[in-house]
Amino acid sequence: xxSQRTRDRLIERLQQQGxxxxxxxxxxxxxxxxxxxxxxxxxxxxxxxxxPIGFGQTISQPYIVARMTQMILASGxxxxxxxxxxxxxxxxxxxxxxVPQVYSVERIGALHQQAKKRLAELQLYxxxxxxxxxxxxxxxxxxxxxxxxxxxxxxxxxxKLADQLNHNGEMILPYDDGxxxxxxxxxxxxxxxxxxxxxxxxxVPLLPGIS
Length: 211
Known about the structure:
Layout: H1 4-16, H2 22-30, E1 51-54, E2 57-59, H3 62-73, E3 80-84, H4 90-96, E4 101-106, H5 109-121, E5 127-131, E6 145-150, H6 159-163, E7 165-176, E8 181-189, E9 192-201
Parallel strand pairs: 3-4, 3-6, 4-5, 6-7
Antiparallel strand pairs: 1-2, 7-8, 8-9
Helix pairs in contact: 1-2
């Protein structure tokens, strides 16, 4: 169930759902998603569905990974991306094969360590990982990013994250209004922010603190 044929079927499904960035499709085809899930679930790794990774967290549905990555690239190639919620490291691995530099934070220590090990095994060296509360963004507040991607839903957009965007930088995130979640793109224009809504999504909530 981890054969190239199985991966090709997943890519065909992504194309049918509107993923048309060829670089994103190529990376999704070649990234071994089965390495990012428990061995007992590896036979389901190339299904287009989210899967549990422990600690109340999930590995995102491949379509959502592809969709958010495609959105990150829509305005051109960013030099840097900050990911809020490393999780198992799958989305991190996809980003790292496309953009020059990826920064990623994870609040759960065990997931942070697992992701660090997996990404090193894949020899992806353009990644910096931190075990920290994602609400605070990247620990070095002097950093600014072209793109920020949140992989957990929030009802209030953390101001510290918005402040870490460069001018014309974009943040892709699932926003939870209490009834449903929607994918948002927030663009920084100096000290003002433009918001655009896209499709409905389902993510675990953004939580404070570290564990």
